[in-house]
Specification:
Mean pLDDT: 90
Distance between the termini: 20 Å
Number of domains: 1
Low-confidence stretches: 1-11
Length: 137
Amino acid sequence: MLKFFRRKTKRNTQENTNAREEAGRLFAAGQNCAQAVLQATTGIDDPQMLKMAKAFGGGVGGSKCLCGAVSGGVMALGLREKGHLADRLVDEFRQAQGATCCIALSRKFRWNSKEHKANCRLITEETAETVARLLEK
């Protein structure tokens, strides 16, 4: 029985890593943070859904407030009937990043600079990994 538990844990860790890598790949390919987290954690490649998620990149409506990676993660949790874990995602994100607003997360960088985009990619990857873990619950 213990052997089965270890195997399951290893597989889940691999799935989380895959979501992280996929989110980074999607972000580098031109998707915003919300789109990348949503698609990487659900595996859904629906143009309408990605069009909807686009409005959450750079904070809702470009407001630079709630990070789109968090929004994409909340959407993924809701789609997988795990919306009750959204508060946990926000709490874990805030603990890991120190804030939830794009403006605070990007304070050190010129908006849309190479460094800013690298920071957003890292946040997107980390958020996808967290969402994938929460989806296992």
